[in-house]
């Protein structure tokens, strides 16, 4: 019963939380629009993408820094970032399981990075993430 009440309460603010996360993701998208090699994750032309995570693709040859080096640089500044979710067929438990395809998800995992995207992330915190990514890219491109 308690969990049902919590779920109902969360449902009442879900649209607001989605709007906040979309605002964070689009702020990052706009801030990095001119950065060659850091591309906002494509969104479907239909429906509404929640942008629950703020995901980007890193092209190391154009950006001048790898996805993993970018994650490490964020960690040194106490800013969490991580790879996008690891596909099931790359998980050890399912490595030998029969599967179809997987090349696209494997590529997204290898190049994808998630930046902080909490609905409670302040504008100042978002600016810190933006400036720290831009600084790491500038250092890495030397």
Structure description:
Helix content is 50%, strand content 10%. Helix 3 crosses helix 5. Strands 1-2-4-3 form a four-stranded antiparallel β-sheet. The model has no long low-confidence stretch (mean pLDDT 92). The protein has helices at residues 2-31, 60-63, 67-76, 103-111, 123-140, and strands at 38-40, 54-58, 82-83, 112-115. With 142 residues, the chain is of the alpha+beta class. The chain is built from five helices and four strands; from the N terminus they run H-E-E-H-H-E-H-E-H.
State Rg: 17 Å
Topology as a string of helices (H) and strands (E) = HEEHHEHEH
Overall pLDDT confidence = 92
| Strands, total number | 4
Q: How helical, in percent, are the residues?
A: 40-55%
| Head-to-tail CA distance between termini | 57 Å
Main pleated-sheet profile:
4 strands, antiparallel
Q: In DSSP terms, counting alpha (H) and pi (I) runs of 4 or more, how many helices?
A: 5
* Helix vs. strand class: alpha+beta
């Amino acid at each position: 019963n308690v969990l049902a009440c919590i779920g109902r309460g969360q449902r009442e603010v879900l649209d607001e939380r989605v709007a906040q996360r979309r605002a964070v993701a689009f702020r990052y998208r706009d801030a990095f629009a001119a950065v060659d090699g850091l591309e906002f994750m494509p969104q479907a032309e239909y429906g509404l993408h929640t942008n629950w995570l703020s995901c980007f693709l890193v092209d190391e040859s154009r950006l001048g820094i790898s996805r993993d080096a970018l994650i490490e640089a964020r960690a040194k500044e106490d800013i969490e970032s991580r790879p996008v979710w690891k596909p099931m067929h790359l998980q050890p438990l399912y490595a030998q399981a029969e599967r179809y395809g997987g090349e696209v998800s494997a590529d997204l995992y290898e190049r994808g990075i998630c930046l902080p995207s909490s609905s409670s992330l302040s504008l100042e915190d978002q600016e810190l993430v933006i400036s720290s990514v831009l600084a790491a890219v500038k250092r890495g491109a030397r």
